[in-house]
Structure formats: C-alpha cells, structure tokens
Amino acid sequence: MKALVLAEHGGGTLKDSTLATITAATQLGEVTVLVAGQGAEASQAADAAAQVAGVGKVLLADDAAYGQMLAENVAALIVPLMDSHDALLCPATSNGKNIAPRVAALLDVMQVSDVLSIEGERTFTRPIYAGNAIATVESTEAKLVLTVRGTSFAKAEATGGSAPVESLTGAGDAGLSRFVGCEDSASDRPELTSAGVVVSGGRALKDAETFAAIITPLADRLHAAIGASRAAVDAGYIGNDHQVGQTGKIVAPQLYIAVGISGAIQHLAGMKDAHTIIAINKDPDAPIFQVADIGLVADIFTAVPELTSKL
Amino acid sequence: MKILVPVKRVIDYNVRPRVKADGSGVDLANVKMSMNPFDEIAVEQAVRLKEAGGAEEIVVVSVGPAKAADTLRSAMAMGADRAILVQTDETVEPLAVAKILKAVFEAEQPGLVILGKQAIDDDCNQTGQMLAALTGRPQGTFASKLEIAGEEALVTREVDGGLETIALALPAIVTADLRLNEPRYASLPNIMKAKKKPIDTKAPEDFGVDVTPRLRTLKVSEPPTRAAGILVGSVDELVAKIKDMGVVA
Ligand SMILES: Cc1cc2nc3c(=O)[nH]c(=O)nc-3n(C[C@H](O)[C@H](O)[C@H](O)COP(=O)(O)OP(=O)(O)OC[C@H]3O[C@@H](n4cnc5c(N)ncnc54)[C@H](O)[C@@H]3O)c2cc1C
Ligand SMILES: Nc1ncnc2c1ncn2[C@@H]1O[C@H](COP(=O)(O)O)[C@@H](O)[C@H]1O
Hints:
The structure holds two protein chains of two kinds. By secondary structure, chain A is α/β, with parallel strands linked by helices. In chain A, the strands form four sheets. Chain A has a seven-stranded parallel β-sheet with strand order 7-11-6-1-4-5-12, with helices on both faces. A five-stranded parallel β-sheet of chain A has the order 15-14-16-17-18. In chain A, strands 8-9-10 form a three-stranded antiparallel β-sheet, with no helix packed on it. In chain A, α3 (71-81) crosses α4 and α5 runs parallel beside α9. Chain A has nine helices and 18 strands. In chain B, a hairpin with a 2-residue loop joins β8 (152-159) and β9 (162-169). The longest helix of chain B is centred in the first third of the chain and has 15 residues, at 37-51. Chain B is globular and about 65 Å long. Chain B is 27% helix and 31% strand. The complex binds flavin-adenine dinucleotide and adenosine monophosphate (AMP).
C-alpha cells in the first residue's frame, strides 16, 4: 500500500504528531510525506522529513496559498495525489481534522477519525463516546483517509532516512477563504501533547492570577506543560489551546497532575492514558479519584504551594 | 439571509455510556437522549444572528429516527423557524449525512450553514468539512467567534496553537466550538410555540442518497480500565512518591 502523510510543521521542523503519523503509515506500506507551506520554513521542514527513518519520498508544495494551511487550498492539492496513493494519513490535530474530511468527501470516501491502532490493512480501532468505548472498524473504501491520534503511536526516528525531496505545484489559491490573523500563544514550555509531565488546573483555581500563582511554579519545577479543564478555559484562567479532553487536546504523559479538577468524562477522555495520574481535590468523592493512581484529598491553595516548595 | 443548522439527536452528555456485553455497540435502551451539545451552540448562534437582524429565517434539519423530531422541536423552541426531518432508522455516517445536507443546501440556498464541530456519540468531527467539500464552499471549523461582514463571514477558530481568524466567502460552512456562545434555555411559551412550527418529513431516498455504511464496525469494547489507585495522607507522602518517579531533576 502507498501511504501519503500530511506533515504538520512549524518553524522549519516537523511536529511530534507528524512523526507519530509516519509510524502509523509505515504499518500500512511505503510512506510519502507531503509538506505544504511557504518559503524557507517549508523547505526546511521538507528536508527534516527526508531524514525521518522509514520515509521513502517527500513532496514539497511551496506556495503562498499553503502558508496558512487553508483547508480549501490544501485539500485541492491533496486530491490529485490520491490517484497514486492508497491511503492519506493526517495527524488528528486541529489542522488534520480540518483538512482530512474535506479530502475524504472529495474522494467520496468515509474517513476513519482518530485512529488508535492499525489492526490490519483496512482494520482500525478508534474511540467513540468520549473514549468510553473503543470501536474496531473495517473500511471498505477504495482509498483510506485516516486521522491518527499522536499519543497512540511511537514517534518515528527523526534521523536515519535519506528520502529524495520533489517539488510539486498545486492549483494554488481557490479564492474561497482568506487568512486574517492569529493569536499564537508562544511559550517556551514543552508542547502539551508531547510533554513528559503535565500539570492541569480546573475551576477551583478561581481566576487567571490565582491559576498562574498556583499552577505555574509547580509546572516550572517539573518542567511540565500546563493543561486545563474546560471550566478553567471558559472562565478565562488560561487560553483555549490548554484545554485537555474530548474536545480539547489528548495527552498521554508519564505524569499528569490534576489540580482542582472534578474528573468529568469529557476531561478524562483527554488524559486517562497518562502513565501515572495524581489528583489533588478537596472532595474525596470527586470522580477524578477513580482514575488517579495517587490521590491527595486537600485544599489546593495550601497543598500545591507546599508540594512545589518541597519538591 | 437564510441559515441552515443541522442538529443530531445523541446520548445526553451527562450519561455515562455502557458498552453492550455482546460487543455490538453502546447500550442506548432507556438512555436519556438530547440535542448534541455543539448543535445547541450552533442553533444559538443562528438565533443570535437573526435577533441582530443578520438573518431572516433559520431552518433546522436532522437525519435520524422519528424521535429526532424532539430534537428539532427543541431547536425550534430556541428560535429556529421550521424543520426538516430526514427519517431513517439506519446509522448514517457523516459522508452520507453530508450528501443529504448538500441536497438540502441546494434546495434551500442558505447564506450560512452552522453545524456542531463534532457529534459526541461517534466523535467523528467530519460532517461540516464534508459538506463544505461537496458544495464547493469554504469552511470555518471549530469557531469560537462568528461575524458577518458584508459578503464574508469572519470566523475565529480554536486551533492547537491558540486562535486564528479567517474570512470566508458566503455562502460558508461553519462548525461551532464550545466557546462560541452559551445556549439559552427555551422558555415555556417558546416551547409551546415550537409545537406549532412545521416539520417537513422526508427520507434519504427523496434526496437520492444511499446511506449504506462504508465502514463496518466489527466490535465495540470497553476501554482498558485503570488499576485502583491509592490515597496519600499528606503532602510529604506525595513528595516522596513523585521523587520516586524520577521526574524531578
Ligand atoms: C460537549 C462537551 C464537551 C466537553 N469537553 C470538555 C473537554 O474537552 N475538557 C474538559 O475538561 N471538559 C469538557 N467539558 C466540560 C466537562 O463536562 C466539565 O464541565 C468540566 O471538565 C469541569 O471542569 P472542572 O473539573 O475544572 O470543574 P468542576 O467540575 O467545577 O470541578 C472543580 C473541582 O475542584 C474542586 N475544588 C474546589 N475548590 C477546591 C479547593 N480549594 N481545593 C481542592 N479542590 C477544590 C471541587 O471539589 C471540584 O471537584 C465538556 C462538556 C461538554 C458538554
Ligand atoms: N444525523 C445527523 N443529523 C443532523 N446533523 C448531523 C447528523 N450527524 C452529524 N450532524 C451535524 O454534523 C456535526 C458533526 O458531526 P460528526 O461529523 O458526526 O462529528 C454535528 O454536530 C451536527 O451538526
């Protein structure tokens, strides 16, 4: 089977989710990576993709129309490439989730979302009902379109490969949509979805200042990424890109510390694959304790600063 | 402008789904069902646009069993004007739903379609993007803000890196994220009024759409359960445990 992987990249490097998706693709067959983007950053990302172990070929589409990964333009770029590929794999990121279904519909195929494992050439597992059930599905489609959950596949080795990079010209701008601007929350913390340790705060944190005062020092001490419940994001304690859960990000760190989070099923959907879960909550009946490996029933406003100072 | 809002009847988000013992699916017998939460947000946004004078009519559509009429009534109680029920007892996959919606789109000629970003039962997150592809229209997925500015829709999207704003030529397809708005509760008089609003009942065949699934579900199983944990009695004990994990330098 010939598999095409849509790369997710930034600043000239590949995102970890791309490396995980490449691993999934190697389980299906020969791997070609498509890097769509604009300028030096795109060509650097293509060079990085060429080094990844297991990659057979890299396609580079460098055009202003692909600089912001607008779905209309990128989907139109991918569709003709599927004449010579049997499967498209995109990371199940906001970008992949945006583009893959558009491609699938243009190919008249049903997509398999959020693939957790590849059981056979056409058989996959995926979560449904916020991860409260796992479905094993078989696709009868001529072409496979998959989005891949990054935390479920090991990252491909970033070096060891030496694939050729071919330039590609697509149809360019479809003229349907336009990028206006973005508010990037740049941070020097580890990326939430691939961090080894995540410290997350919930509604109990009161406001943005308190959230920062309680959560940040502990995260700093543990070199951790910062997560949050939906309630904390809705209340403006921290940006939307920190939300963990069914509709936020999926994390599977070595250690997840839930601070003042009750453990709603929608939150658990995003973090219950962590290796070790620690929960700190004053309510001994909070559902988070049912999934926690280590629980501490305590007031976070005293317990967390004490914990940070003693670590 | 007319706004089309597709709404799905799903398990209520407060219910903990149980996998059937025979592995054939999730047990929905006697389970509370509701409108997909993201679709409530989509309906709310349409109603707000109408209240602000930016839309004349809101049409809601659902593909599902006869009971999906309840979901359509809830949407009309929130302020939608009329409804289309595409009745079927089959499980209809996003691609087929999108094909039905495309036919409705062509018949109704809306300026805007607002869907939920994902249905909380199948968690597919596909239908809006597929509808946009099939109609050849632009898409603004995971919207946390939506404004109509002249011939364009300005959509602020919740993306992995933060927030992104794009401009879409109308008609456009938008999918609602959680922070787009907080849906209202329907008032009693509006619930009564909604009972008199029309529901036009159709079948997938009326739109020439074959809803035969393209994916075969071989089995549905429980996710792996986590081993029972322990409670520690003090911060000092917790500190010791964390130090044992080797995560502190
Ligand atoms: C469609 C849908 C999708 C959703 N998606 C997500 C998602 O992706 N992610 C997500 O997180 N949620 C999601 N939710 C929301 C989810 O249902 C919960 O509402 C949310 O997770 C609750 O956040 P919380 O635990 O911070 O708040 P709460 O449930 O209010 O819990 C706060 C906790 O803090 C504890 N507490 C309070 N004060 C203290 C103190 N001083 N010391 C110690 N403990 C204290 C309380 O005992 C309580 O357990 C979604 C909901 C819907 C309907
Ligand atoms: N059967 C359906 N009837 C009406 N709308 C639907 C249906 N299925 C999906 N949708 C719409 O598409 C959105 C995304 O669903 P999904 O792609 O299944 O995650 C939902 O939030 C609804 O707005």
